[in-house]
């Protein structure tokens, strides 16, 4: 991957379309999926794999429709939706975890609203965390919840490794810690060495997608006005999709 190594590649006949953090930006997701559908129709002989690097929910206005859209799968594609730290926070809130309140301060209130929770009324009553939790559980469709709970942390294909936040340098990819896969930043981002495979990730917003020999960052702040960035990987070629 670096030095004299060959360029990372995926097996012939496969097309991977990977995209960054959606954060409730349903319109941008739909626009991307329209382009995906056009490409699948144009190249029906290829195996298309659509990969989300996580963070479907929070901050943007339409988390519930985003989850529902991807939970249904995408016709003509193998759809891989990875867990993000925001999904992890949301599930921790639903389960009554110790850091449940953290989710509310990181965009969770907008997600609750997207599921039809009447927050204006609830907040006026000075609710407990338990009250807010029950309100969300009452509104979230069971298949959304089971979908979110079943998200894998990583996906691999050829010389590429897909994950939400990144990996810890010096640790084999098959021995990574869940906390790092969901949350790591500086130790991963500042490392210029070889991870064993080229990492495709999101989690840390950048103005434009970052392409380095050892990693690609696809989080371009869709919920902050940036684009929902996707890349097409075929063989050893990687292009903005």
UniProtKB/TrEMBL annotation:
Residue ranges of domain Calcineurin-like phosphoesterase in the record: 15-207
InterPro entries the UniProt entry points to: Ap4A_hydrolase, Calcineurin-like_PHP, Metallo-depent_PP-like
CDD domains linked to this entry: MPP_PPP_family
Residues passing through the membrane, by range: none
Any matching Pfam family: Metallophos
Protein name listed in UniProt: Ser/threonine protein phosphatase
Organism per entry: Labrys miyagiensis
């Amino acid at each position: 991957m670096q030095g004299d190594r060959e360029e990372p590649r995926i097996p012939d006949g496969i097309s991977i379309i990977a995209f960054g953090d959606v954060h409730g930006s349903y319109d941008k997701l739909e626009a991307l999926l329209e382009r995906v559908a056009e490409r699948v129709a144009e190249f029906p002989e290829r195996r298309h794999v659509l990969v989300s690097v996580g963070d479907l929910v929070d901050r943007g206005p339409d988390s519930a429709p985003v989850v529902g859209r991807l939970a249904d799968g995408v016709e003509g594609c193998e759809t891989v939706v990875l867990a993000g730290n925001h999904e992890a926070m949301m599930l921790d809130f639903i389960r009554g975890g110790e850091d449940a309140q953290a989710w509310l301060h990181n965009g969770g209130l907008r997600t609750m609203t997207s599921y039809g929770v009447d927050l204006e009324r609830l907040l006026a009553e000075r609710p407990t965390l338990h009250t807010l939790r029950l309100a969300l559980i009452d509104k979230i469709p069971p298949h959304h919840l089971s979908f979110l709970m079943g998200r894998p942390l990583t996906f691999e294909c050829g010389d590429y490794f897909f994950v939400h936040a990144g990996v810890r340098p010096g640790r084999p990819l098959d021995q990574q810690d869940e906390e790092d896969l969901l949350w790591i930043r500086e130790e991963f981002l500042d490392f210029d060495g070889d991870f064993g495979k080229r990492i495709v990730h999101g989690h840390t917003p950048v103005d434009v997608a970052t392409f380095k020999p050892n990693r690609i960052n696809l989080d371009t702040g869709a919920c902050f006005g940036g684009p929902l960035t996707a890349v097409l990987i075929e063989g050893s070629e990687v292009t903005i999709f």
